[in-house]
Amino acid sequence: MGRPSGCLFFLRAPQRGAPTDTIEFDMHYPYIQRCLELAENGRGKVSPNPLVGCVIVKGGAVITEGWHEAFGESHAETAALRKAGDLARGATLYVNLEPCRHKGKQPPCTDAIIRAGITTVVFGARDPRNGGLEVLKFGPAFAPLGASAGKGLEVIGPVMEAECRRLNRGFFSLIEQKRPWVTVKKAMRKDGTITGKITDEEQDRWAHSHLRATHDAILVGAGTVVADDPSLNVRHGTMTSHPRRIILGLEVIGPVMEAECRRLNRGFFSLIEQKRPWVTIKKAMRKDGTITGKITDEEQDHWTHTHLRAKHDAILVGAGTVVADDPSLNVRHGTMTSHPRRIILDPHRKLSKESLVLSDADAERTLVIQEKLPIPELLQKLKEEGITSLLVEGGKGVWRSFEESGCIDEEVLLLGN
Prior knowledge:
six-stranded parallel β-sheet, 417 residues, five-stranded mixed β-sheet, 15 helices
């Protein structure tokens, strides 16, 4: 499919090698052209390696064909030679890029060609990375792996050099210009405007099959993404993989509502910045300072469960609170489907096995600390347990221990009548 009407094509980079017109090369054109067609089978799979196809001919007939199928896998020449087997001896090998002489993920192609008994190699374009023509021409003395054949091969080329270089323009650009090949595609109306839908179906199909499908990546600015929300893929042709998508100039704004966002993850930030869980201490007392018996009302209880317990990884109390009140220490209001862990400080081993926290269905989420640990060490132990935020609900003794440690991030006081 040629370029559609309304498509202007400007080639700004100089093209090395012009189409070859000498009569002696005419017989080679169909085979090099076939190499180019075979090479296309690797499109989207071999980069940054070049696209390479290979045809082996003997007695005027094609014996076998091959191509570089994927990065890291067999090169086109070795793939074709493997299929040809002994029939390759005395045959002519056609390839669109000079066979390599270096060892990378695959062994040198020159070694495989000489060992197979190929007598003539016809190539499309030179390999700028120090290719293997000298090895092929002058024999095994130049072969890095010490090939076993005797004399050099007949080497013909370049043939259809411009076409072969264009197929691998990205590969050549990386080596010769030290950067990727860049094609700029512009779409505009005759009056110069570029808003809204501009191209027709024929132009779209050509842009996909001849531009997008033949490049490793597509680049647009953030404005195009915001305005059009494009897929930036290949929707026409036979491509099974798509180019990478590069977006320039994404505007980054922020922080926005930073305090709220940090508060949501206060446990996460505390582990990183303070090296310990976030600690909220909740006190409930009457206006006269007493803390025995039921203190809070229903509204306060509801708020405590939904805004404190439900938003912490664990609840901590002393054994005295468990002995006196036998609390469940769970979340009884709201939509929580899982409950915080229960941490009980019991250095004097007062806790009864019949306590709810040790005998109910969630007993496995109760952690009893029987050592008398300094609060910083206790918090490190809880950090190792995966706890990022801790709600302290203990009595006055527990409150005092945390206050003296300086390890309180937030204090909530509920006053009862």
